[in-house]
């Protein structure tokens, strides 16, 4: 079996490539550092020769709706067109729990993920969509993204962070054993409020930034699973945070 990982050297892509290779699967990494550009199409056709499954763990620094939509949708369209020509039979996409539920806040990046899911679902290669909540290791970055003028503005809404390796295990399973066409969500074992989680994480790191609680945009449960989902077993590495 041969798997093409779009974004194969990223936070998710790189450990996923290692996991698949240790299971004897041939992996082709498709990132800019590999000389492959999924947007311009440079190097894509050659890299996809003989590939059975495409795993899409691409990312963009564009957080505005126009930039995110154009990147995520454009990449899916190019991967589908070239993948189909090469004979790929399965497209596994990593998305985020809550995007596309209709009541998540109108963050441009999330609109890009909604467009990405839609393009994957209607694409020429049967797709499996894996949706994960925020990675536990990503929380400090999320805190920075919520910081304005030294203060952290945290919504009073739910967050249920998951250990990255458990997401990677699910992606490996999807790429190798799941039948195309499904949607699977994964979240961590515990549900917190953003502001409580951010305060505890900052305190644990000796970071004295103030956390300001703000009313949630949209529903309180907009970014956590609402239906059946896989529950990770690894707890957030800081204890004593109130559960939501
Ligand atoms: N962070 C979270 O908590 C979380 C939760 C759920 C889902 N996700 C999703 O997980 C996915 C992967 O995130 P990540 O943190 O692993 O991202 P990342 O570390 O930023 O990696 C992104 C990868 O995309 C590649 N890339 C960017 N533009 C490209 C282009 N034009 N052509 C080819 N490759 C390109 C990069 O290649 P180079 O390295 O060569 O530049 C890099 O390998 C994202 O779609 C994100 O929405 C994240």
Can you walk through the features of this model?
The protein is α/β, with parallel strands linked by helices. It has a domain at 2-135 and 160-187: NAD(P)-binding Rossmann-like Domain (Rossmann fold), CATH 3.40.50.720. Helix content is 33%, strand content 20%. The protein has seven helices and twelve strands. The chain has helices at residues 13-22, 44-47, 65-86, 108-121, 139-145, 164-176, 194-204, and strands at 2-6, 26-30, 53-56, 90-96, 127-132, 147-148, 151-155, 158-159, 183-187, 192-193, 210-214, 230-231. Helix 1 links the parallel strand 1 and strand 2. Helix 1 packs across helix 6 (164-176). The longest helix has 22 residues, at 65-86. The radius of gyration is 18 Å and the shape is globular. The N and C termini lie far apart (43 Å). The chain binds NADP nicotinamide-adenine-dinucleotide phosphate. This is NmrA family protein. InterPro entries: NAD(P)-bd_dom_sf.
What keywords describe this structure?
244 residues; alpha/beta; Rossmann fold; 7-stranded parallel sheet; 3-stranded mixed sheet; 7 helices; 33% helix; binds NADP nicotinamide-adenine-dinucleotide phosphate; NAD(P)-bd_dom_sf; NmrA family protein
In short:
The chain has 244 residues and is of the alpha/beta class. It has seven helices and twelve strands. It has a domain at 2-135 and 160-187: 3-Layer(aba) Sandwich (Rossmann fold).
